[in-house]
Amino acid sequence: MDITTDWKLIRKHFNKSFSNNFHFSIASVDAENRPTVTPIGSLFLNKNQSGFYFEKYPSKLPLHSKTNKHICVLAVKSGTFFWLKSLFRNRFDTNPGIKLYGTMGEKRKATTLELKRLNQRMRVTRYLKGNAYLWGSMEYVRDITFTSAEKINLGKMTGHL
Asked: Mean pLDDT throughout 62-77?
């Protein structure tokens, strides 16, 4: 999978995956080379093989970025109908999962446009109590530059993709 030519497809997959899961998994490595995975519900992909996430709750990612800025982001489509249809047909029509590899930038203040993107994504839950608790007062983001992408391989069921 080419990160430049397939970027629109990758962004579409990530949007669909988020609509099923409400988060992505970001893997990072600590100073002792131990891996860990952090669920992030505020990751956004830009139009140029980059992205950002709001850094309010993650504790491990900021620590790991001091010694190793490399990360891997996993987006899996987990919709029941998508999986049942694929299992019945013995093949996936689209990739069930994509991994993006990249590096974290420095923490910085969120722009007005980034805050607008967050509010637009979370608009469905804006009247619920937990919305203000989880996504209110988001001030800081961390940029990510993506360098490569990889499709999830599930043998014969994804071999044609």
From this structure: 94
